[in-house]
Amino acid sequence: MISGRAAGALSRRLRLGGGTSIVGLVAQRLYPDIIRHLAAQLEHGSVLVTGTNGKTTTSGFLAAILRDAGLRVWRNREGANLLRGVAGALVVRALPSGNLRRAGQAISVFEIDEAVMPQAVRLLEPRAAVFINLFRDQLDRYGEVESVAALWRQMVKGLPETTTLVLNADDPTTASLGELARGPVLYFGLEDLTLDLSGQDGQGTAGTYQAVDSRSCVRCGSDYRYSARFYSHMGHYQCPHCGLERPAPTVRALQVRQDTFDRLRVTVETPTQLGEIVIPLPGLYNVYNALAAIAVAQALGISWEPIVSGIEQFKPAFGRGERVQVAGRTLRLLLAKNPTGLNEVLRTLFSEGTPRHMLFVLNDNIADGRDVSWIWDVDFERAQGLTASLTVAGTRAFDLALRLKYAGFAPEEMTIIPSTPLRALEELIGSQPRGRKGRGRGRARHQQQQPDAVAAKTSTKVSPAAEEGAASPQERATPFPGYGLATALERAIEQTPVGETLFIVPTYTGLLELHRELERRGLTPHYWEGRD
């Protein structure tokens, strides 16, 4: 444990990262059973939260509720959701003797990667296991939805009777796990039929661009029929062949009303309570996240008052609606890493027809998934004509720009800033004189070589010093300064008037890179800083 904590401290000291995983990695290497050993000391046990979307927010809601109920909550708040992240979260709270500090009145709430959930369950033996949803995500890593579902089904069969399953009734795949459980099962879901997409004419998501990832009955393979569908495959369903249908939720949202962009009023019914809760986050997906947390709280015997106060006082988690002030503007960070997630972010942003200042960041690093073809299943058409300014960045900026062109965005509407200069462009700039005429010819030739979708407002057009030929010393040292996420952020901020909001929608590694840039500017603390 001492070695693991030392490795984490060194990682932070050298600014290599938060040290949120290396602590657990070193500790597990030296003591493979470290998770089981430390978790067994928690007086109130563990809760595990998994799903494609919403793990961080759901575990945050639940942690806030449990703290307001008087418990000490330990979790992997930094989002390191593999086993090494869980091990690290426990090790940093351990004494050199191998015992947890202040294990009394303590409970752990861990968000867990979908594929790692079976191993985590075996090691932690949780009091409750929460399955929020299952969508297509990182196909190059997980495979199709059914691959993860098969892992979950096998895992649930082996759960002890002491583990309560908390399942999304509106997701056919997660709801079906209840049939295999040996212990208690609680379901949560929406009952407000005004949210049914079929009744929302002109909203764009009821048809072509809903990425439906669970179409077939898990029993017989027939297609489900929906009496109400809220998004993707979430809704009220029944199999016409074998009769399998949505289970009745234990925790239900009877009515959902939007007060403001950041404020949802939800009438919630549980077996013992009926009341209104204010969710301080946008989006229907956050209603599901709150319902999941409420259901777990019910399973743990938490009273209604801390449930209400915990949710209503919740602060947005790292990149999940997080708000940052910069130069008189507000930045809002909304992580979106798969088609369903991005569709719901776009619906939240543009359903009222309000123009938004936007920065999209599309990366294809390992943690994002190498295959970015999923952007063609996203309803970018919904945003067409509603972007007050539009900046596109990331390792696959040009792919996203092409998709946006097909969605109806004119190339001249976009400021396109790739992560690095194209190799051909580097060679072109390197062969040109450093004077104004050389840069101009290089820029013109570069634009001629770009596809129609991106031969518009690329980064070489948005550097005023370069445009005027009066390059600063820094620009003279860097012949092509118009690339990289820091540049993209600066351009997007410049295009957002003082007093207005810039909405930033990045994939996962784009979010991490943005946070590093905001940390460098002193605008936000390191994501691993803070106290549970």
UniProtKB/TrEMBL annotation:
Residues 432-478 are annotated as: Disordered. Pathway: Cell wall biogenesis; peptidoglycan biosynthesis. Its EC number is 6.3.5.13. Residues 49-197 form the Mur ligase central domain. GO terms for molecular function: acid-amino acid ligase activity; ATP binding; carbon-nitrogen ligase activity on lipid II; zinc ion binding. The active site is at D371. Residues 434-446 have a biased composition (Basic residues). One of its GO terms (biological process) is regulation of cell shape. InterPro entries: Lipid_II_synth_MurT, Mur-like_cat_sf, Mur_ligase_cen, MurT_C. It is an enzyme of class 6 (ligase). Belongs to the MurCDEF family. MurT subfamily. Forms a heterodimer with GatD. This is Lipid II isoglutaminyl synthase (glutamine-hydrolyzing) subunit MurT.
